[in-house]
Amino acid sequence: MNIIIRHSYEQISKYSAQIIANRVKSNPRCVLGLATGSTPIGTYQELVRLHKEEGLDFSQVKTFNLDEYLGTGIDLEKPYSMDQSYARFMHEELFKNINIKQENIFIPNGLTKEPKNFCKWYEDEIKKAGGIDLQILGIGRDGHWGFNEPGSSLGSRTRVVALTEQTLDDNYEAFYKNANISREQMPHFAITMGIGTILESREILMIANGSKKSGVIAKCLEGPVTAQITSSAIQLYSGEINVVIDDEAAYELKNTHHYRHMEKMNKQYGL
Ligand code: PGA
After folding, report:
1. What separation in Å is there between the alpha carbon of 162 and the centre of ligand 1?
2. What is the pTM for the complete model shown?
3. 169 touches ligand 1 (CB under 6 Å)
4. What is the Cα–Cα distance from 253 to 246, expressed in whole angstroms?
5. pLDDT digits (tens, 9 = 90+) for 19-44
C-alpha cells in the first residue's frame, strides 16, 4: 500500500489525476470506478485540464460510479436540471468537460422502479466490461466507501442501503443546504456498490483531505479491519493501492515517518 502525503488539496488532486491519466494513457480502453463528493472535485478539474490542454483522451474509457441517492437522477428531458443527483454532479464536474461517450458512462439509476433488479444488472455490466481497472474512492467520516455505512458486510455487493445520520448531516451541509432542500426532504436511501464489489477492482486510489478526515483515516489504515469502518477492508485488498492524503487528513496516523520513507524508497528503486 502506497500512502502518499502532500501539503495541500491542490497537490493531492494533481497527484491523483496523474495516476488516473497514466492508466488512461497506458490503456485507453480502461474501466474507471468513479466517486462523488467534495474530495474528488479537484482531481476531476485536473483531469479536465489534462484533457483540454494536453489531449488526454477518454473516448474509449468506460466508467462505473460507486453510488446514487435513491429517488434522484438526471431527468432525460432536462439533462442538467438542478437536481442533487450524483449523475448531475458527474456531468457537471467531469463528463460534460471531457470526450467520454455517453454509452460508456454507468451510474446507478436512482430513479429505477426496480432497485433490486437494477443492482443485479449493474453488477453484471461491471463484469461484462471486464471488471474495474482503477477504482477511485473518497472516505466518509463514518469510514464508508460509497454508501457502505457501518455494519455493511465486507463482502457486500451492489444494493439498496439506508444512510446514517452522520452521512445525511455531511451531505446536507455539502450539497442540499445550498439547493434549498431540507434535511427531511433529502433522500435517505441510496444504491451503492458493495465492499465486495469494490475489492474486486484491480487497483484502488483513495483520496482524503482535511482535518475532518484525520480520525477516520487513522482507523481505516491503522485500526482493526471491521465492518464498523467499511473502508478498513483496504487492509485485505490484494491489488495496487495508492492512498493520497493531505497533511491534515494524515495528522492522526502513527506511522507517517515510515510511509514517507517507503515513498522515497519506492521512487529510488522504481518499485
Ligand atoms: P466527501 O465525501 O468527499 O464529500 O467528504 C466522501 C464520501 O462520503 O465518500
Report:
1. 16
2. 0.94
3. no
4. 12
5. 999 999 999 999 999 999 999 999 99
